[in-house]
Design brief:
Elements (H helix, E strand, L loop, with lengths): L2 E4 L3 E6 L6 H12 L4 E6 L16 H16 L4 E6 L1 H12 L4 E7 L19 E2 L8 H6 L4 E2 L1 H9 L7 H10 L22 E6 L8 H7 L5 E6 L10 H16 L3
Parallel strand pairs: 2-3, 2-4, 4-5, 5-8, 6-7, 8-9
Antiparallel strand pairs: 1-3
Helix pairs in contact: 2-3
């Protein structure tokens, strides 16, 4: 499984969203993490980025098991923290709860809380600010800019990002796993939430029409040490709120370091 490793220290596993990859996550988060004192391990899950060869996977249960075994090998049974975006946030939540004895804490950014779309509580897509009315956008850019804050700075940020690595085998695998009958898990990742006593961070966009925010707040009420922030004027990317996100992540990491 492909990884990008930065720095030294206690491992911080970082998992991208669906179709994202390690290079994009490093582009987004390395500026705020490079002086954290943690070793940042940006991970490509099966079917993402440079990770290939898992074309026989049939569902997210199997996908999770592959991720679980990789984390065990990467950490060697030592303590780790984890952070994920969107579907990656769902994965780090599952991994942290499965490996509670090792987990020092986890952070969820714009998290998927429930996989099936029909179970999500989603706000309507709205535009609160639009600086791009005169811009010519590609179809992919138009999709990415489905956000309440259609700003030039966000567009420039996305245009400067490394393009996700795709190949035909990965696309076929992700398409198969994304089918409704496969894109679900058979277990409850939060069955022991009340017993998880490590720092948890959850940041959601109030106008996130992809995963919503209400269910994230309900979930965080179950975790004794969860910080939950639902940010106004923020959609799924959360990039509109980078200074606030940076401060919240740094506080979460400080809480983890204080307990090492």
């Amino acid at each position: 499984m492909h990884t990008i490793v930065k720095g030294k220290g206690q491992p911080l596993i970082i998992v991208p969203g669906w179709t994202g990859d390690s290079a994009f996550m490093a582009y987004c988060y390395e500026p705020m993490l490079k002086d954290s004192g943690f070793q940042r391990i940006y991970l490509d899950p099966p079917g993402h980025g440079g990770t290939t060869g898992y074309h026989n996977l049939e569902n997210i249960d199997q996908y999770f098991q592959i991720m679980l075994e990789k984390i065990k090998k990467l950490t060697g049974g030592e303590p780790f923290a984890a952070m994920g975006f969107s579907m990656g946030a769902f994965m780090v939540r599952c991994l942290s709860m499965e490996l509670q004895q090792q987990s020092m804490g986890f952070a969820m950014l714009a998290p998927v809380i429930t996989l099936p779309y029909e179970q999500r509580i989603l706000p309507e897509l709205i535009t609160l600010k639009d600086e791009l009315q005169q811009e010519t956008l590609s179809p992919l850019e138009s999709m990415y800019m489905e956000t309440p804050m259609r700003t030039r700075s966000l567009l420039q940020f996305l245009r400067a990002a490394p393009s996700p690595t795709f190949n035909e085998a990965n696309i076929r695998l992700l398409d198969k796993l994304f089918l409704p009958e496969n894109y679900r898990v058979s277990f409850d990742p939060d069955k022991d939430a009340e017993q998880y006593t490590r720092p948890v961070l959850c940041i959601a966009g109030k106008q996130d029409h992809v995963v919503g925010y209400q269910q994230a707040g309900q979930l965080c009420n179950r975790y004794p040490r969860a910080t939950f922030a639902a940010l106004d004027r923020a959609g799924h990317w959360l990039e509109e709120k980078k200074p606030i996100i940076t401060a919240l992540i740094q506080e979460w990491l400080t809480a983890i370091k204080d307990e090492l």
